[in-house]
Protein 1
Amino acid sequence: MKFVWPVLAISLLSLGFIETASAPTYQLPIAGAWAAPPARVTDRPGNIKGDVMVLMYHRFEQSEKYMVRSLANFRSDLKRLRDAGFRPVTVSEYVDGKMDIPPGSSPVVLTFDDSWDTQFKLLRNGEPDPDTAVGVWLDFSKKHPEFPVKGTFFCLANGPFGTAAQGAKKIKMLQSWGSEIGAHTMTHPNLARLSDERVKEEMAKSKLYLESKGAKNVRTFALPYGNLPRNTSLLHGFVWKGKVFKYDAVVLAAGNPAPAPGSSRLNKLRIPRVIASQDTYGINNWLNRLQNKTWKPFVQP
Ligand SMILES: [Zn+2]
């Protein structure tokens, strides 16, 4: 509507409806200010068929170990991803194909399993502990608001994040930043070894547990150890204690980047994830391949 005013003011002036003396109080907008197209994040051409990297994190410590990301390497992951034009989305946004990211950017999904306390602790004053994954990401997002704390946390019935008293508060905080809470069973069993009844119990109870802690719409699920139940039809939904349970997305463990949201190759109940570690086929491999153009990710047109 900004452009209407000068036109209206000029026509009213020419008709003598307003005094010329009052005209200078109106500041004309800078030419073209409302017409500038949004700047592209990278010069990568749009590619809606490209794959999406779904990263898998577990524990965090000061030093890197097997299945443990050092906080320094996590900070470096955030920087590398942001600088390479990636923008965070949740698993739900990815499977729904509703990724609100700017032109020229690529989506990345950061997922966190097992709700370890090293992912998210609170200090005595209630603020996030800076020496946890969430603390590091929060600090990074203050300097880079385009890379907000927006990931999917696949939680167990451990508080979550180790302390029952603070579980609900942490869930509320994560959701307020745009993150999503997903389920990961109650006790982390190998689903391949359980009866159908026990699989249903683990999958249903964990959703109810997280929702009792304030998690909104728990519709994504991570398989412990990436192992499928023997009866894979349970992933399509089941009835437990008279109630229907169904997850819209199920993620596996280590693998390659996942197919694009609209791709016929995408099985929403078997989403592969890239391990975020120094592993040969982990995050570094794909970021290096992006650099030497041997991997073409999804790029927002
Ligand atoms: Zn796990």
Protein 2
Amino acid sequence: MDEKTIKEYLNRCSKCGGCMAACPLFAETQMEPLVARGKLFLIKNYLDGNLDLSKKMMELMSLCLLCKACTDQCPNSIPVDQLVLSIRQEIAQHKGISFVKKNIFQHFLQNNGRLNIAAKMANLYQRSGLQWLVRKSGILGLLGRDLAKKEKLLPEMAKVPFRAQVPKLISVSNPQMRVAYYTGCVTNYVFPQTGHAVLEILRNHSLEVVIPEQWCCGIPALASGDEGSTVELAKKNIKAFQEAGVDYIITDCASCGSMLHEYADLIGSGDAHFFADKVVDLSQFLAEVVDFTPGDKEIGCVVTYHDPCHLNRGQGVREAPRKLLKSLPGVIFKEMKEADRCCGAAGSFNLTYYDLANKVGHRKVCNIKDTGANVVTTECPSCIMQIRHLIELEQIPVEVTHLAELISKSYGGVS
Ligand code: SF4
Ligand code: SF4
């Protein structure tokens, strides 16, 4: 976003405070600089030359979930998350990004070979007994505040990444359509069972599926102000999926889906628009594109649904997952209060601001508990990790699962 556009948006803020009731961070901290109105005030003063990019300013700009809840409530429709992202880019340009992040975004996310090795090493750390030893020794507690707690957020890595477990083309007889599957990094490296569930659903709808070589969508880099890396990743993905020749590109991850849609504005080329137009979330695809037919196996559970910010406000998908859930055999659906409120995951926000993220998430856990459901489902692997972590901390007997995995149970489930 150029400076002129940013200033136009900033001038639209009437300081009405309508965003205060919506902001999950303001609810927990009551701090004006964390709510949209306060952030816009800071950004305006920076652009007017009254503030510099001090350590405090940089910290305040990193304190945003990018959940878009403020924009939803704003009478002037100010895209606060986009303005915060623009300032994060400015910070990255002037102050640089950390050595670790730079390496991850520029040398690992751009190179699947290196990423596979890193995932394998993380898996070895977890399975060799080293993780057990590290936890038992208490060494992380000595190394830094919250490090031991944060380490528990590290999900169990898959022994073999999902894309290495399946062929690049999954054929069916008499396909009604040819689609591509964008697996996202978390499904690939952490939750391969979600990937298998997605394939089972698509197979049951007679769809030929292509899974081309693909790269991270770029959202972690963009959220840290590294637009250059995001553009590189976007170009790689657009090229890879263009060659697949498909009708739709299906995603099971709300954050990836939202980012893939943004390639159109980010790159601006005809190819980028063509790519972005084909991207569709799994639930939307099932509810609106194909004639969704669940299996006939009784699932037998009371389920509630958490709306990921990047699916609900990011892509406008609200009714589709509920429609699917209500059609599943043996499923009783219970709507939770504030289903669309952020769970606190927000990419790596929960790692950087562990305690604050947990405070935000506590409200989600209470709302889940109030429904009496024994299953909570959603469509964002990052939300799944955060909600599972919170539920474990608060010892609530609720299963957290991806919608695809729940649907696949109606066909018998994947082994
Ligand atoms: S709701 Fe919109 S216009 Fe009102 S204070 Fe917040 S950002 Fe400004
Ligand atoms: S995007 Fe979310 S966390 Fe950030 S200011 Fe708006 S409501 Fe608050």
